């Protein structure tokens, strides 16, 4: 969820006929890994007492007692320091955006305590969706159309060539497949659909690169 939007924007910013900057791709890949893991650490720290009561989460390191809170804080400090080291390689505007995003990362676990829609905060953090009961699939189809339209608009403004739109069409079909084959009462099915987002991200990235160089 963190990696692909970074890769998309790097590819969009590349000059026409050029591949994305490999240094930026490496920085974003490293930063995504570090900050995604830091977000998981924060989530486990904030939710330790809740995790103890849930079968799916009661074996997490803090909930099970395998790690202490002090050890978790130390590990989080190492993660955030590593993330800062990556962030400082970028320009001042990007550094500012990175620092302000930490508020969303820290706030997300608390949303579970005050709303049935904690994904609203996660959406601000990772840029995705909510749950809408029986209307979930129709609304997600609307989000799919909006996402594809937004990406198409970005491609138009970046003056991408025809291969981008061909690839984007295939990417949209993959996203539509996720939504329309999802079984909302089947966790295994939903986890598989969620995991397939990596292919959607890769397809959009490849489409942008193709639209730049072909």
Automatic annotation (TrEMBL):
The answer to whether UniProt assigns keyword Transferase to this entry is: yes
Cell compartments where the protein resides: Membrane
Give one Pfam hit by family name. Answer: UbiA
User: Which residue windows are transmembrane per the record?
Assistant: 23-46, 67-87
What's an example of a GO molecular-function annotation for this chain? Answer: transferase activity, transferring alkyl or aryl (other than methyl) groups
Which GO BP terms sit in this record?
Answer: ubiquinone biosynthetic process
Please provide the record's keywords in A-Z order.
Membrane, Signal, Transferase, Transmembrane, Transmembrane helix
Q: Which cofactor does it need?
A: Mg(2+)
Bilayer topology: Multi-pass membrane protein
Q: What is its main location?
A: membrane
Is Heme one of the keywords UniProt gives this record? no
According to the record, the signal peptide region is 1-18
Can you supply one Gene Ontology CC term for this chain's record?
A: mitochondrial inner membrane
Q: Which domain of life is it from?
A: Eukaryota
In terms of Gene3D superfamilies, this protein maps to: UbiA prenyltransferase (1.10.357.140)
- Family according to the record: Belongs to the UbiA prenyltransferase family.
Q: What is this protein called?
A: 4-hydroxybenzoate polyprenyl transferase
Q: Which organism is it from?
A: Aphanomyces astaci (Crayfish plague agent)
């Amino acid at each position: 969820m963190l990696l692909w939007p970074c890769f998309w924007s790097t590819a969009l910013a590349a000059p026409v006929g050029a591949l994305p900057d490999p240094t930026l791709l490496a920085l974003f890949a490293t930063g995504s890994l570090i900050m995604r893991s830091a977000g998981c650490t924060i989530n486990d720290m904030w939710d330790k007492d809740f995790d103890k009561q849930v079968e799916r989460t009661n074996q997490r390191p803090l909930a099970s007692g395998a790690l202490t809170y002090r050890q978790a804080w130390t590990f989080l400090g190492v993660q955030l320091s590593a993330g800062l080291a990556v962030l400082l390689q970028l320009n001042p505007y990007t550094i500012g955006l990175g620092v302000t995003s930490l508020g969303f990362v820290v706030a997300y676990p608390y949303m579970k305590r005050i709303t049935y829609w904690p994904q609203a905060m996660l959406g601000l953090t990772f840029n995705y969706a909510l749950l809408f009961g029986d209307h979930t699939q129709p609304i997600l189809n609307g989000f799919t159309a909006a996402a594809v339209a937004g990406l198409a608009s970005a491609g138009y403004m970046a003056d991408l060539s025809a291969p981008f739109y061909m690839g984007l069409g295939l990417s949209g079909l993959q996203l539509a497949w996720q939504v329309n084959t999802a079984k909302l009462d089947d966790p295994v099915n939903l986890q598989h659909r969620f995991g397939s987002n990596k292919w959607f991200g890769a397809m959009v990235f490849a489409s942008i690169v193709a639209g730049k160089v072909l």
